[in-house]
Amino acid sequence: MSDDAVLFDARPDGIAVLTLNRPDTRNCLAKDVRDGLFAAWERFERDPALRVAILTGAGRTFCAGGDLKEMVATGMGVPPREMFPIPYDTIELSKPTIAAVNGPAFAGGWMIAQACDLCVAASTATFAVTEVKVGRSSPWASPLIHMIPQRIMMEILLTGKPIDARRAYEIGLVNRLAEPENLLETALELARDILAGAPLSVRAARETVMLATEMGRSAALRAARHASTQCYESADAQEGPRAFAEKRRPEWSGR
């Protein structure tokens, strides 16, 4: 296996699998992992053949969070905003992403899993926002309020205690559960479900969800209609109904 901090597998089916590859340090977000993730996300976004990305971890841990030794060595106060590669925040992405959480996702590990559009978790995975345990803070967790109920979010942040994969699924943080040996295949299956849709339709659908999250009802409706114009005016918008009428699989062009 490559000794790269982040492995990048560009599959011929249009799926990219990104793997945090520092199992000896529980895939913590040390500088080499951060740099590798920045490069991997940029590569995914720029490659038109890749339409969905899956982020997972090597070994038994998804990601243990930030590098506490680095924080001590640098006397780090407020982390620079651009320090961590967070999809749709410090990383500009226009395509769907899936976190495949294979083990503990603590602190910064929760952060990067949360930032992905969808989440598949192994039955052995655990999640925790542990910053209160080490005197740090978790402002990145604020979007959680759009994913889970307020009182549950409050308990998770105030106590720093982990929740297991089943609980994460029950509260809506996780989309699908899988046995550890089936985790990647379950994530790939979800990615293939996305790939079955027309590319411009998938992009418009994702933008609609994010606009609805960030805006009030009326503003979100206006913005979503605007975001959908390119989809409606595309060749695929004609191909889809035509294929349905002809009882065949559509051939998407992405145009």
TrEMBL record:
The keyword S-adenosyl-L-methionine does not apply. InterPro entries: ClpP/crotonase-like_dom_sf (IPR029045), Enoyl-CoA_hydra/iso (IPR001753), Enoyl-CoA_hydra_C (IPR014748). It holds the Pfam family ECH_1. Keywords: Lipid metabolism, Lyase. Residues 232-255 are annotated as: Disordered. Residues 244-255 have a biased composition (Basic and acidic residues). The keyword Ligase does not apply. CDD domains: crotonase-like. Transmembrane segments: none annotated. Belongs to the enoyl-CoA hydratase/isomerase family. PANTHER family: (7AS)-7A-METHYL-1,5-DIOXO-2,3,5,6,7,7A-HEXAHYDRO-1H-INDENE-CARBOXYL-COA HYDROLASE, ENOYL-COA HYDRATASE-RELATED. This is Enoyl-CoA hydratase/isomerase family protein.
